[in-house]
Design a protein that fits this description.
alpha+beta, 6 helices
């Protein structure tokens, strides 16, 4: 938890802000509700409806704000892209979110929205964090009565903001493209005898420093990765013939 101070930010900032549609046709992500409301309109049978939603659901931050995605730590304007207004999320990137159950989960946003805001609030914590958000952006705050959500414009000096000690990291790639990634001169590859005969691997391509019977009629089954690259073979062509890989320091 962190104590926070709030100061006015610049008036012209690039934002990702909640979308406020003027027509039912402009609402995205609530297809079932829109369909029901549209049926009321078409029948001219509008009941007494109260349209409500949790204030500050949209997290409104400046474009340079980093967010944790399945691609790693990313600026949020890179997730949204260069647009003014509302659009579907075409990137397919999943963003770390805080669920109603109090858990963290990577979720793909259905839509994104960008615009220029006229007002900003800078929230500074005593440990050096500095967040620039819209006035209605909510923070989880510890009070005498427990935890409560509070808009940034209502924060004051000494308020204690709740922040996670840790969050789940995105899954890491478990595979390495070693043909491209490893040092071609220091990496030596053991291949099948069939492969060695077919491509005529010369004797001098043997692994340096390893004693070998000098049978010049026998094909060399060891060659540098650089030599393999020069053959221009496909990955599938290599996969079935590689027996081992050694790296020489």
């Amino acid at each position: 938890m962190s104590e926070a101070d709030t100061v006015p930010g610049n008036r012209e900032e690039i934002w990702l802000e909640k979308y406020r549609p003027d027509r039912l046709a402009d609402i995205a992500g609530q297809e079932t509700i829109v369909e029901r409301l549209q049926s009321y309109v078409e029948r001219d049978d509008l009941p007494h409806l109260l349209f409500a939603g949790p204030a500050g659901v949209g997290k409104c931050v400046t474009g340079e704000t980093p967010v944790l995605t399945t691609d790693g730590l990313t600026r949020i304007d890179d997730v949204v892209g260069e647009r003014e207004g509302f659009a579907e999320n075409e990137a397919g990137t999943e963003v770390l979110t805080f669920t109603r159950d109090g858990e963290f989960e990577y979720v793909e946003p259905s839509h994104v929205f960008g615009k220029t805001a006229k007002e900003a609030v800078s929230v500074q914590t005593r440990d050096g964090a500095d967040l620039t958000v819209t006035p209605e952006h909510r923070f989880l705050v510890l009070t005498r009565d427990g935890l409560t959500w509070r808009e940034s414009r209502n924060l004051g000096s000494g308020d204690r903001i709740v922040r996670p000690l840790s969050v789940p990291l995105p899954p890491e790639e478990s595979e390495l493209d070693w043909v491209d990634a490893m040092d071609g001169e220091r990496t030596f590859v053991h291949v099948s005898e069939q492969f060695a005969k077919r491509h005529g691997i010369p004797f001098e391509e043997n692994l340096v420093g390893v004693k070998k019977d000098e049978d010049l009629d026998a094909p060399s089954t060891i060659c540098s990765l650089a030599y393999l690259r020069d053959l221009g073979l496909s990955r599938d062509g290599l996969r079935t013939h590689v027996r081992a890989i050694q790296y020489v320091t």
